[in-house]
Design a protein that fits this description.
The protein contains five helices and six strands. The chain is elongated, with a radius of gyration of 20 Å. It comes from Corynebacterium mustelae.
């Protein structure tokens, strides 16, 4: 499902507090692996390779691709908006930490924050519909704009999800 190779930098952190197990997590654009400080170097290498492979497989299988976004946007444009939107391109971006999506009205280019890659479908759909509406209602968030944006399936529920997520994680998105 994911067309690009997922290969982040791996950072190994030796911990005197860790005795038997290792732990790995994705932090920004790297995999952070914590290992016991006294772990044998050969065993460390084997365990790190194993846990990194598992994380990569999990990430690769769950991440939605840009091609998936385009297919979804085209379907939503037809099904929800009656084909009114102009879709130039749509892709995931990692530099949007203050908004869920953005749209260039003239070109129809839509950018969706990578933070939405694992949200429920109805949430992603609502954000995409919102950005699609910007391509044909160009006077901001007017009454006409919301008439179309709120046609997304479960739009109100999606707004609530995003508000709660923003509050819980203190993410300064809008």
């Amino acid at each position: 499902m994911h067309s690009e190779e997922f290969s982040p930098k791996v950072e190994v952190i030796r911990s005197t507090r860790r005795r038997k197990s290792i732990a790995a997590r994705l932090v920004d654009d790297r995999i952070e692996v914590r290992v016991p400080a006294l772990l044998d170097p050969a065993e460390e290498q084997r365990l790190v390779e194993e846990v990194v492979a598992k994380l990569k497989a999990k990430k690769t299988s769950t991440v939605r691709s840009d091609a998936d976004l385009m297919q979804r946007a085209r379907r939503l444009n037809e099904d929800v908006l009656g084909g009114r939107a102009l879709i130039g391109s749509i892709r995931w971006v990692t530099n949007q930490n203050y908004r869920w999506g953005s749209c260039s009205v003239l070109s129809g280019d839509i950018r969706i924050s990578h933070r939405l890659q694992n949200v429920p479908d109805y949430v992603l759909n609502a954000v995409i519909v919102h950005e699609l509406v910007h391509t044909f209602i160009t006077d901001g968030h007017s009454k006409d704009f919301w008439y179309f944006a709120d046609k997304a399936p479960q739009a109100e529920r999606a707004k609530g999800f995003l508000e709660a997520w923003q509050y819980c994680y203190q993410a300064p998105a809008r």
